[in-house]
Amino acid sequence: MSAGVTIGGAPVVTLTAQDAPAEGPAFLEAQVLPGRGMMLLQAKLRLPSGEVVHALQAPAPEEAARQLDGGPEDFAGNRSFSFGGALLIPYANRICGRPAPDAREIETTVAGQAVRLPRNWGGRAPGAAQYAMHGLILDTRVPFEQTAPEAVTGRLAAGTFGDRWPGDLELTFTWRLSGGALRLLIQAQNRGESATDLGVGWHPYFVLPSGKRTQARLRLAAAARAEVDNYDEVLPTGRLLAVAGTPYDFGAPDGAALGELYLDDCFTELARENGVAAAEIRDPSSGLGLRIATPSAHVKAMQVYAPPDQAFVAVEPQFNLADPYGPEWPAGTDTGMARLQPGASLAYDISVELFALGNP
Q1: For residue 1, is it within any domain?
Q2: CA distance linking residue 213 with residue 206, whole number of Å
Q3: Partner residues linked to 4 by β-bridges
Q4: d(Cα 89, Cα 170) in Å, to the nearest integer?
Q5: Across residues 147-157, what is the average pLDDT?
Q6: CA 359, CA 288: separation in Å to the nearest integer?
Q7: How does pLDDT run across 301-320, given as a tens digit for each residue?
Q8: In sequence order, which residues have a C-beta less than 8 Å from that of residue 63 and are 6 or more positions away?
Q9: Each residue of 74-99: pLDDT tens digit?
Q10: Is the pLDDT of residue 1 over 70?
């Protein structure tokens, strides 16, 4: 636990690595918030130089408690995805729909069932679209058990997420520090009598230790990105654009420099090596490389958010493309939502590993 700080009615859980290597890059500590959907608040890592730094853009627990516990800007848990690493379930990214009688909701159809979702995000420009964003557990309190100094497990009988989603879902979350790496496992089971759809994602803001964004490099082998209308609404047009030979091509062995390129883009058609999809953030000035990898076949996309005036890169492995039920997508497009039959289970498995540049 973290010095008695509570957020969302639950303590901040601190994990400490037990088997990290004695030298070289490694995760040493992590802070998890069961009171906010088992999100990751912060982690500490050791650089190749031996210096220990924060891995994520996030406030200290006391300030996080002030920001997360109350206030109109936190409608539907919005503040959870403004820092740290929120978990996005039962959908990642945006879902559009029709205005509902309650001005804070939209109406849409999921797995053949009409649902109402919180209208908790949208464009800032006058007349911009408003929509549901990043799932339904952002401010959910999850019962948990810290099974060891290096691990915590939460179990949530999510059901219908308060009558907002079809099915009867049960979720298990495990965060673990192992061998110098950070690992996340989410297991979902449909305990209902009819099939349901499910999208899962994670939204970590990884800090560039050097603070020098232009020299940072991204490696992400993907064949396409989803075209968006603009970077205010960030809604897909329904077109998947080839990235080869464009500024959005990060597939080279050492990736490509971010430079001044603004990114809030969803990359798809991910390349896999031995069944694993991965992205790397490289910070040459600090000598650190960070690799986000998943063997989960349901992860069809990685959203990358990296404004040029910020020293972070958010790489978000997720099942679904933005607005997966939207009419903009041509018929037959796989927008990534997993169909979970009654009694069926699936897993979302992520590892974050560190390496010294020159030794991937």
Answers
A1: no
A2: 12
A3: none
A4: 12
A5: 97
A6: 10
A7: 999 999 999 999 999 999 99
A8: none
A9: 999 999 999 999 999 999 999 999 99
A10: no
Residue 3 has a pLDDT of 57
**Token pair for 194:** 């009819």
115 Cβ neighbours under 8 A, 6+ residues apart: 107, 108, 109, 164, 165, 166
* Dist CA 18 CA 1 (whole Å): 16
Token pair of 203 as six digits: 């939204």
pTM summary value: 0.96
321-358 pLDDT, tens digit per residue, is 999 999 999 999 999 999 999 999 999 999 999 999 97
Q: How many structural domains are present in the chain?
A: 1
Evaluate whether residue 229 is within a structural domain.
yes
Residue 259 CA to residue 146 CA, distance in Å, equals: 41
Is the backbone peptide bond immediately before 90 cis, with ω within 30 degrees of 0?
Answer: yes
Please check the confidence at residue 181 and state whether its pLDDT lies above 60. Answer: yes
**What does the CA dihedral 188, 73, 107, 236 come to, rounded to 10 degrees?**
-80
What six digits make up the tokens of 205? 């803001």
Domain range for 348 is: 6-356
Q: Which residue has the tokens 């608040």?
A: 41
Specify the pLDDT at position 359. Answer: 57
The CATH number of the domain holding residue 17 is 2.70.98.10
Q: Does residue 82 lie within any of the structural domains?
A: yes
Average pLDDT value for the chain: 96
Tens of pLDDT, residues 237-264: 999 999 999 999 999 999 999 999 999 9
Rounded Cα distance between 70 and 26, Å, is 35
